[in-house]
Amino acid sequence: MAVHINIGRHADRSVKKKEKLKEPDDYRVVLLNDNYTTMDFVVEILMSIFHKNEEDAERIMLDVHRKGRGIVGVYTLDIAQTKANQVHMLAREREFPLRCIVEKQ
Fold first, then answer.
1. Which of 25, 36, 38, 72 is 20 to 30 A distant from 62 in Cα terms?
2. pLDDT tens per residue, range 2-34
3. What Cα–Cα distance (Å) separates residue 51 from each residue in 43, 44, 95, 103?
4. pLDDT per position as a tens digit, 43-71
5. Distances in whole angstroms, Cα of residue 71 to Cα of each of 21, 22, 33, 42, 50
6. Which runs of consecutive H residues, i.e. helices, occur in the chain?
7. What gap in Å lies between CA 88 and CA 105, rounded to an integer?
8. What is the value of pTM for the model shown?
9. Distance CA 69, CA 100 (A)
């Protein structure tokens, strides 16, 4: 009867390290209310930057108007920051003080 023993370079094959991949954290993009930005512009932002349909855009816009803030979406950090920057750039171009923040979920 033969006994097999793993010695040397073959021993590493029997012990495999399990690497656990971590999902990236999620971040909320939130629009904040102000007294100057028009509702139409907020709807336009929601449809053009966040690709919301008109019904969803109007619902989120009303949240912003009534509650002072509205959650636009949940993204990875890079995408959330990029979208927030796009909102700020377009708002500045149109001379609106619309603010958009990114919060860790």
1. 25
2. 655 555 555 555 556 778 888 999 999 999 999
3. 10, 10, 22, 20
4. 999 999 999 999 999 999 999 999 999 99
5. 28, 25, 12, 13, 11
6. 11-14, 39-48, 54-67, 77-93
7. 21
8. 0.78
9. 9
CA dist., res. 47 & res. 44, Å (int): 5
Query: What phi and psi values does residue 6 have, to the nearest 5 degrees?
Result: -80, 115
- CA atoms lying within 13 Å on the CB side of residue 13: 6
| The two three-digit tokens of residue 80, written as one number | 């959330």
- Given a contact cutoff of 8 angstroms between Cβ atoms, the answer to whether 45 and 90 are in contact is yes
d(CA 100, CA 95): 15
Distance CA 80, CA 100 (A): 10
